[in-house]
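re: the backbone from monday

yeah here it is again, tokenized this time
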């Protein structure tokens, strides 16, 4: 399964880099990253290529799922900020080179999955599984596509403003960057997306919608950059899925959710659709 694949494996070797190892955001590099990723998913590679034609245009999709709820939210908040640790950057990506943890980097609690070297250092706190089993029970029940029982995930809380960036993965042209907002005391949404084709443009950042009926969603990491504001008087904890849809069953389960979600939010301001063609981001045959 995908949990046995190193995160660093997902970086193609023949991409152009700046001094310090930062990957240059060119169409050639995004194409190389996507192709390399697809080649590591042989069971579903051809399926993904077809799905991109249908789902690539969807920039942001709220999931048609009930809220993921924590039985004792106050207990969870105390637990997270007691056990969370600032993460250091250990793999160069499209955003920056490596650096050590500081009080201004993310606070995190992370999956216990072995054989995983993510971009950021991990802080494994195994008691989160037993203290708050309902989080993982709901995820596996509502999102069976996430992977094995011990799939790859992070719980993150920003400790500073987050500059605009694309994540290291995935560069597959679909809304695959999944988040669950476990807690947020901000009075307004802090996370924004920028549609960012590899051409001159004047697109503006748009804040994500806040929906009462669902706290989970996904965006297209290839076509957008995301950024976040931060206030020291407010706190926010996000759950981030870091695994891969590596089998036909997982892909089918996820596509079922996408179809249901798109149908629910079609015609609303909560479903964001790109007017740029895929060729503004990738070199396609």
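seq for it, each position gets an aa:
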């Amino acid at each position: 399964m995908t949990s046995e694949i190193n995160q660093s494996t997902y970086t193609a070797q023949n991409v152009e880099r700046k001094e310090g190892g930062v990957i240059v955001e060119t169409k050639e590099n995004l194409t190389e990253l996507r192709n390399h990723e697809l080649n590591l998913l042989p069971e579903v590679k051809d399926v993904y290529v077809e799905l991109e034609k249908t789902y690539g245009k969807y920039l942001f999709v709220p999931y048609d799922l009930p809220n993921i709820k924590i039985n004792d939210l106050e207990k969870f908040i105390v637990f997270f900020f007691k056990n969370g640790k600032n993460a250091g950057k250990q793999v160069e990506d499209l955003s920056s080179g490596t650096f050590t943890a500081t009080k201004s980097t993310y606070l995190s609690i992370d999956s216990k999955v072995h054989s995983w070297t993510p971009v950021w250092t991990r802080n494994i706190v195994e008691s989160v599984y037993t203290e708050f089993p309902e989080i993982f029970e709901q995820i596996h029940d509502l999102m069976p596509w996430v992977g094995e029982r011990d799939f790859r995930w992070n719980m993150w809380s920003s400790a500073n403003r987050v500059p605009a960036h694309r994540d290291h993965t995935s560069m597959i042209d679909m809304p695959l960057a999944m988040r669950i907002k476990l807690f947020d005391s901000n009075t307004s949404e802090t996370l924004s997306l920028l549609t960012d084709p590899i051409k001159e443009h004047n697109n503006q950042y748009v804040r994500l919608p806040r929906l009462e009926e669902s706290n989970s969603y996904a965006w297209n990491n290839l076509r957008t950059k995301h950024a976040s504001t931060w206030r020291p008087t407010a706190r926010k904890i996000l759950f981030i899925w870091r695994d891969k849809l590596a089998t036909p069953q997982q892909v089918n389960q996820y596509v079922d959710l996408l179809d249901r979600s798109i149908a629910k939010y079609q015609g609303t301001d909560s479903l964001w659709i790109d007017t740029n063609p895929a060729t503004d981001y990738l070199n396609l045959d």
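The first helix runs from residue 27 to 39. The chain has one domain: 2-277.
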